[in-house]
Design a protein that fits this description.
The chain folds into two domains: 178 residues, SET domain (Beta-clip-like), CATH 2.170.270; 158 residues, no CATH class. Helices cover 37% and strands 18% of the residues. It is built from 13 helices and 17 strands. The strands form seven sheets. A three-stranded antiparallel β-sheet has the order 3-11-10, with no helix packed on it. Strand 1 and strand 2 form a beta hairpin. Helix 11 crosses helix 13. It is globular and about 60 Å long.
């Protein structure tokens, strides 16, 4: 483990499987993991040439329209994949866009348009091709992929059978060694993808929902479990740096505490969170926040839509009533007594970004970044500009906005 990962230990927790816990007290803002993907694949359809030209097919940096023709390099064989530089194009040949993968993508694209494959099937086909390409070029990383948790039965029988048959009949001869390419292995790989893939997101916009540009398998980060009130959050800097994932602590935690991420924005209501976790990951959450919010439900499964609307209204009302109480309690040194009843209220006030359409999570800058005062400029809803100098600065993991932490 690197120095940045010394504060984490991988353990088995009954009922939760693999988990990462603090092996020492951790500080808010501390980087506890920097992880590189072993596999990346695009999040757009196989036949979407226009969309694929917006990104480098190797590092997934966004290609600015005015620079696409001037700087980018196309794959000489398929002419569909574009790269941000000759270096990326050269690196891709031996990794993310090998001759085998290039030929396979070209062949499967020709058939996909006539088969009218759904987007999900196209993305799963992309993943399988990328996974078998990994087996060809980096067997050790492929074994790491196979070692991750994942249940092939959660995929069902029809999807693996269809995709395996499609790849077998359409694509180039699968990579060696002989016997690796099988229906059973394809099903197992799809199970790994379903449970472990992280989305590399588009830059934040106040005027549009945030979309995924690529999916990646991060082997160490895959051991983080979910919590609806996480104590850590992920940052990525694809356009400015690379595809590494950086995980930072949101607040201080003691030794022995499990370190959890939220698998989606923390603003989602109870019913939406439970449905998404069950559909995408196969479990129901019983974290402290869910235990409280479950009591707000009328438990009427036949009136699910009405229940969600009612719960959203109740959450808003309770939030309005209790946020002020929680903040007042904290100011009087009594925040601990307010948190158990409504554990989400304090979290939302302090750690959720309030920028329009963001819903990101705030974490302090790494301790080494706050040894000297930082100038933070905040623009409020009335277009008033506030300039503050403070070493206690929070960064949003979605929009990148910096905010003074007035609670410290």
């Amino acid at each position: 483990m690197s120095k940045e990962e010394e504060g984490l230990s991988l353990v088995e927790i009954h009922g939760r499987g693999r988990a990462l816990v603090a092996s020492q007290p951790l500080r808010g803002g501390q980087i506890v993991l920097r992880d590189s993907p072993i596999l990346l694949y695009p999040a757009f359809p196989l036949v979407s040439v226009d969309e694929s030209s917006h990104y480098c097919s190797h590092c997934f940096k966004k290609l600015e329209p005015e620079r696409v023709v001037q700087v980018s390099v196309s794959c000489p064989d398929c002419s569909l994949e574009r790269f941000c530089s000759p270096n990326c194009a050269s690196s891709a040949v031996s990794s993310s866009h090998s001759p085998w993968l290039c030929q396979s993508l070209l062949l499967i694209r020709r058939h996909s348009s006539s088969l009218s494959l759904s987007l999900d099937l196209q993305l799963q086909a992309r993943f399988l091709l990328a996974a078998y390409n990994l087996a060809l070029l980096n067997p050790s990383h492929f074994q790491t992929l196979l070692s991750l948790q994942g249940d092939s039965t959660a995929i069902g029988d029809e999807t693996p059978r269809f995709l395996h048959s499609l790849i077998s009949s359409v694509c180039a001869t699968p990579p060696p060694p002989v016997g690796w390419f099988s229906l059973e292995l394809s099903a197992a790989l799809l199970g790994k993808d379903k449970l472990n893939a992280f989305g590399l997101m588009e830059p934040f916009s106040e005027n549009a929902p945030r979309s995924v540009r690529a999916y990646g398998i991060y082997p160490k980060a895959s051991s983080f479990n979910h919590d609806c009130l996480p104590n850590a959050c992920r940052f990525d800097y694809v356009d400015s740096d690379n595809t590494d994932m950086v995980v930072r602590m949101i607040h201080d935690v003691p030794q022995g505490r499990e370190i959890c991420l939220s698998y989606f924005p923390v603003n989602q209501n109870y019913a939406s969170r439970q449905r998404r976790l069950m559909e995408d990951y196969g479990f129901a959450c019983d974290c402290d926040r869910c235990k409280v919010e479950a009591q707000w439900s009328d438990n009427d499964d036949n009136e699910e839509e009405q229940q969600e609307e009612q719960q959203e209204e109740e959450e808003e009302e309770l939030m309005e009533e209790d946020v002020d109480q929680t903040m007042e309690a904290e100011a009087e040194g009594e925040a601990g007594s307010a948190e158990p009843e409504f554990p989400h209220a304090y979290f939302f006030v302090r750690y959720m970004c309030n920028r329009n359409n963001c819903w990101g999570t705030l974490a302090p800058l790494p301790p080494s970044s706050t040894t000297t005062p930082l100038i933070v400029v905040n623009v409020n809803d009335n277009d008033n500009v506030n300039v503050n100098v403070n070493v206690n600065v929070m960064e949003c993991n979605v929009c990148g906005n910096l905010k003074n932490d007035d609670h410290t």
